[in-house]
Amino acid sequence: MKEAENNPIVSLIASIVSPFIMLFGLYVIFHGHYSPGGGFQGGTLLAASIILIRLAHSSHTGQLQFPAKLGTPLGSLGVLIYYGTGLAALWWGGQFLNYAFLPLAEEISLRRSWGILLVEIGVGLAVMAILVSIFDDLLEEEDHD
Amino acid sequence: MKDQRLKIVNYSLLLIFLALLIYASLGLSPRGDLNSWVNREESAAHSPNAATYYIRHAYHDTHSPNMVTAILADYRGYDTLGEETVILTAGIICFLLLRRERRKTKNSKNKEIKAEK
């Protein structure tokens, strides 16, 4: 594919809107307890903000923001956070993924709340990185030619 | 000609699927109906229903007012773990399949060019 000419209006609007989408994605992840939301939805929003920059600017600018190499490692890190939370509960004497045994707070219900937050962060990270990496895989040829 | 026939088949299949979905949705119990099997405390086989337990204990157990998150990440943690693994697998498979094929096509193109020379 030939390099598309950068439309200044599109790039400007994308640059303005993208940080707000990212902020909203973070809000959705971290407020998953209290309002509708969670890791999957928040991760998708984060990925949308990154892909928006890639679409509106040249692929080089998008690579500066989030390098394509980072996709698979960050996705694996997200999954590892999830497994790590489960294994940490196992380490402190509980069952796998039983957040009540994580030494994060005094109250058991609060411990579960923190455990859910950790897990949601892992899910959000994995979903964001994997979505961006699939987008990069599909467009890889166009970057090189 | 063939394209048009395919289009007709496509749209008729979509319409049939829509009719099927509407027919299936007619079988759902109305929302908030206390007498439907979904909302009873015991299932048809006289075993306790999970939904009522979640509604009663979710906030007390997990200190999070969002019941959906509590169920997804805590009660059904294994399920979400599996989902995340599936997403990672999909990403890795995209990575492997697409990049490998690209390399092959590029190599074959190079070979063709060399053969022409």
Overview of the molecule:
The complex is a heterodimer of chains A (145) and B (117). Chain A has five helices and no strands. Chain A is mainly alpha-helical. Chain A has one domain. Chain B is mostly helical. Chain B contains four helices and no strands. The model of chain B has no long low-confidence stretch (mean pLDDT 83). Chains A and B meet through helix 4 and helix 5 of A and helix 2, helix 3 and helix 4 of B.
Summarize this structure as a short list of keywords or feature phrases.
heterodimer, A: 145 residues, mainly alpha, 5 helices, 73% helix, elongated, B: 117 residues, 74% helix, flat
Write the layout of secondary structure elements.
The complex is a heterodimer of chains A (145) and B (117).
Chain A: H1 8-30, H2 39-56, H3 59-65, H4 71-91, H5 108-144
Helix pairs in contact in A: 1-2, 2-3, 2-5, 4-5
Chain B: H1 2-26, H2 50-62, H3 67-75, H4 77-116
